[in-house]
Amino acid sequence: MSLTFARQDAESIPLHVIPSENLDAIPAEARAWADANGFDGSLGQTLAVPGNDGAIAFALVGYGTAKARARGRFQVSAAARTLPVATYHIAAGLSGLALEETVLGWLLASYSFDRYVAPAKPVARLKAPEGVDAARLEVIAAGEALTRDLINTPTADMGPGDLEAATRNLADQHGAAVNVIAGEDLLTQNFPMIHTVGRAVGPDPHRAPRLIDMTWGDAGPTLTLVGKGVCFDTGGLNIKPGASMGLMKKDMGGSATVLGLAHMIMGLKLPLRLRVLIPAVENSIDGTAFRPQDILTSRKGLTVEINNTDAEGRLVLADALALADETTPDLVISMATLTGAARVAVGPDISPYFTDTPKFAQALENVANDVADPVWRLPFHEPYEAMIEPGIADLDNAPKGGFAGTITAALFLRRFVQSPYMHFDVYGWNPAAAPARPKGGVGMGARAILAALPAMLDL
């Protein structure tokens, strides 16, 4: 798997991108061949055109219609897996943002998760076009690949200790520092809800709950990323049915996404001070598991009534957010695979987010579509605050009724942060293969955040 561009001095085959509305853009010498092979410029359609010697002289890829292009992302990049394996360069048909989306998608289309199987067959490679920041796109693609790898890895090999190891490897790559508080030390250092959620894993210290704290940079505005690191979620004593538990290796998708974003930030050397906090746990079941109707006291001192042990992600995030807030950063961003309600609201392809700061929302709206990373703002709707107040404790982790589950979860988290704050409720999983996004773990929101950070933090 090579998520890099081909060398500029490599021999390459010209690639012409042809919209359905302009088949005249097909080079004259190839029009008869295109007609004979039914090439009509449909989106993602490919055709290799032979020269007199039988070798590929150039290739065509369909750009479809404007309506077809509006219904997806990275469609041209699918050519990486359908063209004959060779090195190509885009000779005509794309420019600006469409060109950048295609070449990034080409890198992402090269991704495969082959840790447990024979390596995937190679795919066609691409030279970076002139005017495209190739080094930047390679860093972004590597960050996305890290996110995908972490989510795709099953919990047997991606428990709390493995997530810590992945963070340390990333820190070593970029000269960052890592501190970890684990096991019973979580109690003595006042992270009671992280400890409570993760304490039922048994005696294996590798599985013990922990707070992973990575820091990088010594100048500029301060950004703290908080990622939900529930490495597996049984649901606890409110155990999930089997069908709902099948994808729970991805419940650490928030932590995987912030680590991928951290790689992008550090690899591009953005002028800021970065902190990444990951509460890493497994929500397991044994005699020490926390129970429905328990009342927990958080790091911030707020009490939480447990009405469903399967609403554990907001508990571990709450302690981490309280820690983040103690240093009053310029921006705190949490990312979590938090609620099924978010998927009902916007499906698996869009990252819903919350913020009270119009500047942050506008910065995201200005760039998300440009970088092919769709987001959608949901409200911190104040009248719903009463839904998370049970009376017997300060907060309820699972309000009854089933309404506005994404919003009430976000309101719960906001209680632990006074600093400027954004929350992303991501899915972290692509349920069906799509161009540049195979079925499996996927980053959501990270590229949009990366593009918006300069405006958010006045970099």
UniProtKB/TrEMBL annotation:
It holds the Pfam family Peptidase_M17_N_1. Its EC number is 3.4.11.1. The keyword Nucleotide-binding does not apply. One of its GO terms (molecular function) is metalloaminopeptidase activity. It comes from the Bacteria. SUPFAM superfamilies: Zn-dependent exopeptidases. InterPro entries: Leucine_aapep/pepB, Macro_dom-like, Peptidase_M17_C, Peptidase_M17_N_1. Signal peptide: none annotated. GO terms for biological process: proteolysis. GO terms for cellular component: cytoplasm. Residues 308-315 form the Cytosol aminopeptidase domain. Keywords: Aminopeptidase, Hydrolase, Manganese, Protease. Belongs to the peptidase M17 family. This is Leucyl aminopeptidase.
